[in-house]
Amino acid sequence: MGAKNNNKDDTSSIVPKWIEARLFEGALKEVESEFKEIVDFKAKGALAPGENYCTIMLKADFIIKLKDESTKPLSFMLKVGHDTDLFREMMEGHNIFGAETGMYREVVPELEKIYSDAGVNVKFGAKSYTLATDQSYILLENLKEKGFRNANRLDGLDMEHTKCVLEKMAQWHAASAVRAASKGMYSDLYSEGYIRPKSFDLIKGMYESSEKIFLECVKEYSNSDLYYGKVVEMYQKVAVEMFKTADTKHDSEFSVLNHGDAWVNNIMFCHDEETGKILETYFVDYQIPRYASPAQDLWYFILSSAQYEIKLQQFDFLVAFYHQHLEKNLKLLKYPNKIPSLKDLHLMLYKDGIWAFRTVTGVMSAVLCDPNENASLDNFMGESDAGAAFKRQMYSNPRYRKHMEAILPWLLYRGLLDY
């Protein structure tokens, strides 16, 4: 019996024409040893607008027939690229599919093995599979079938969930540092993220296209007289300052393989159904890793994704909590070099403090934006009328404004608006 392709729904228009049921047969055989044939197949959009910007996430649903003639449902998550000029320009600067494919097939298993060799079972994410195609894609197991869920990005993560993420981040960072110490530098594909010369004009252009609207909105914030002048200066130089961090000499300071995009939608949790206890925490979207100071991931995650009530008031505690687990795992894995002290970590956070401003003016505005049909990569980075309207909505929405009215004075008084 031939497989039916049943893609008739509201989201089928975003499914690329090259996606066909037959391409998945190898992956289905890997998942189910009794696989015989595909009975039905349907691909559809998995996320609402505003839940993912850089790529398109699809859910591929199957009904398969087994060798005993019974049937069984199975599903995968499939990531593909946007068919836009902007996305193609991004790919020229940094091949996110090449990077993420390598991360899932090489780096993640390698770091997990470092822990297993030390007698500890640690998993960092979903299992990946291959398709019989030359197209760019990432194919992953559907973690929701194992009970994993995302948190609500608008609410942010409470203390318990934030600590679980920082504990897993410390495990990842520790293993990545041990691997670098034993095997040498990571490939450029993994080590630079988008902080590379080819991406500079794109990032600088993104800030230039948003500058007028962003600064108009900031000027309306209730306490803007405290920091507005410094924010203007910072906004105009943030791209240049970010790319200066690309010159870091990794042999002279503690460096890790940053996830690079550790915000709430790129983290999934599995809870005990009865008690609600967090059983496991996984990262997803390993598409812009970067070998650098752990300050990048710490600023990015805490400021973008922790609840309003804890991201500033408990910031120093969260850094100390992360450091405690980083130190523990570096010792467990017998890291051969100097383990950074908590003081060292705070100095890294100051030195790479540009990531604080980068986070709150970039990803945090998207994290806190209400669900919106206009939430797209082109509108986030472009200069169209629709893009301008979307940006004004992001920067002026009460939720984002509330966070910024607390964060900008906090950055000011820490000296992090001075560059």
UniProtKB/TrEMBL annotation:
One function term, GO molecular function aspect: kinase activity
Xref: InterPro entries: CHK_kinase-like, EcKL, Kinase-like_dom_sf
Domain of life: Eukaryota
Alphabetical UniProt keywords: Kinase, Transferase
Keyword Transcription regulation belongs to the record: no
Pfam family, one: EcKL
Segment forming the signal sequence: none
Domain CHK kinase-like: 138-332
Protein name according to UniProt: Ecdysteroid kinase
Species name: Musca domestica
